[in-house]
């Protein structure tokens, strides 16, 4: 942005008669940096070295500063240059403006986590929260006790909290369809068929026909009655009966614990919830060949360079990786969504 060397006409919007200060669009803001160097060095050659410019270029910058301010700024006094009263008046302000401008454009470092006071919102299924929540919250409490975490259910298909900024992260099977969303797959989990303790199926290996003949519960926040298990059974010419669809894994586990219904849960990530509910993993005499469930971490690129967000992602990544690599009961792969 360069100022015009021609004087403004009386009707020009940059003219003093038109109402005051010149708009920034008519000023080369690089001149502030040059002015700061000139006032600090009180020498064109010294300012040139500070700015990594040639002396002629720095001299031209001084000329433009003089035309822009209407003041000589520096004048020759023997073998040295001295600042004008106007230059002395604005020197501290110019130095402060340049310092703050550098602060605006400098990369932001990570504050001391002990001083970090921020609320992060994470989208996740209830079972995944149960799987990593204690570990993650323990990590955060130790490093940054003032940080708060808000867990919210996974969004509906028409919502996109990562894009609109109402959520910081989504973990699990990512639903966002926004093309700019960053998604990092951390691993996969498979699934097991689960029943209550003492269910007839716990007496021994369960056949494919027995699985198909049982009554099932599906955990699906969208109310779906079908899942990968149905496709696997259909490939064998079989069809199961889904008695109920519930909106969360927590509800499904509660229903299973108090009935003869059969359900599906993630093998490793479901381990804490299954143990808490006292549920049994079926010993299957079959191979359902269900597809693995990708577990990912997703965020909007607006947070790529945000140091606290990067710090949070690292802790969530560690907690998820620990949950995925821990021991878990055996079983087929896949899950109902």
Tell me about this structure:
The chain has 337 residues and is of the alpha/beta class. Mean pLDDT is 84; it is low at 1-19 and 329-337. It is 38% helix and 18% strand. The protein is built from 11 helices and 12 strands.
Shape: rod-shaped
Strand content: 15-25%
Structural class label: alpha/beta
How many helical stretches?
11
End-to-end distance: 56 Å
**Number of DSSP-assigned strands:** 12
Q: Could you tell me the radius of gyration in angstroms? A: 33 Å
Lateral arrangement of strands in the main beta sheet: 4-3-5-12-6
Mean pLDDT: 84
Estimate percent helicity: 25-40%
Strand count, sense and barrel status of the largest sheet are: 5 strands, mixed
List keywords for this structure.
single chain, 337 residues, alpha/beta, 12 strands, 38% helix, 18% strand, disordered N terminus
How would you summarize what this structure contains?
This protein is an alpha/beta fold.
Any chance you could write out the topology, listing elements then pairs?
Blueprint lengths: L29 H12 L2 H8 L3 H15 L4 E4 L2 E4 L1 H21 L13 E5 L2 H18 L4 E5 L8 H4 L4 E4 L9 E8 L1 E6 L11 H6 L1 E5 L8 H8 L5 E6 L2 H9 L5 E4 L4 H7 L1 E3 L11 E7 L7 H19 L12
Parallel strand pairs: 3-4, 3-5, 8-9
Antiparallel strand pairs: 1-2, 5-12, 6-12, 7-10, 7-11
Helix pairs in contact: 1-2, 1-3, 1-4, 2-3, 5-11
């Amino acid at each position: 942005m360069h100022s015009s060397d021609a004087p403004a006409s009386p009707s020009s919007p940059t003219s003093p008669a038109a109402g005051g200060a010149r708009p920034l669009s008519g000023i080369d803001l690089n001149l502030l940096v040059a002015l700061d160097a000139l006032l600090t060095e009180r020498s064109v050659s010294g300012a040139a070295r500070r700015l990594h410019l040639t002396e002629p270029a720095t001299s031209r910058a001084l000329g433009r500063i003089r035309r822009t301010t209407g003041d000589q700024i520096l004048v020759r006094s023997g073998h040295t240059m001295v600042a004008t009263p106007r230059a002395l008046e604005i020197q501290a302000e110019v130095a402060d403006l340049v310092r703050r401008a550098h602060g605006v454009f400098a990369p932001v470092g990570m504050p001391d986590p002990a001083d970090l006071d921020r609320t992060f919102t994470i989208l996740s299924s209830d079972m995944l929260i149960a799987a990593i929540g204690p570990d993650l919250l323990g990590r955060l409490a130790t490093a940054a006790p003032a940080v708060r975490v808000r867990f919210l259910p996974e969004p509906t298909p028409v919502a996109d909290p990562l894009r609109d900024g109402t959520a910081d992260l989504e973990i699990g099977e990512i639903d966002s369809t926004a093309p700019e969303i960053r998604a990092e797959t951390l691993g996969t989990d498979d699934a097991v068929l689960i029943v209550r303790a003492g269910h007839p199926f716990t007496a021994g290996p369960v056949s494919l026909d027995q699985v198909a003949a049982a009554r099932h519960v599906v955990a699906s926040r969208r109310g779906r009655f079908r899942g990968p298990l149905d496709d696997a059974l259909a490939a064998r010419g079989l069809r199961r009966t889904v008695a109920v669809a519930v909106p969360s894994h927590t509800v499904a586990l509660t229903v299973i614990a108090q009935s003869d219904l059969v359900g599906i849960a993630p093998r490793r990530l479901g381990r804490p919830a299954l143990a808490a509910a006292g549920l049994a993993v079926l010993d299957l005499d079959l191979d359902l060949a269900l597809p693995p469930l990708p577990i990912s971490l997703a965020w909007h690129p607006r947070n790529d360079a945000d140091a606290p967000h990067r710090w949070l992602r690292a802790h969530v990544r560690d907690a998820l990786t620990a949950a995925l690599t821990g021991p878990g009961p055996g079983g087929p792969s896949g899950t109902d969504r």
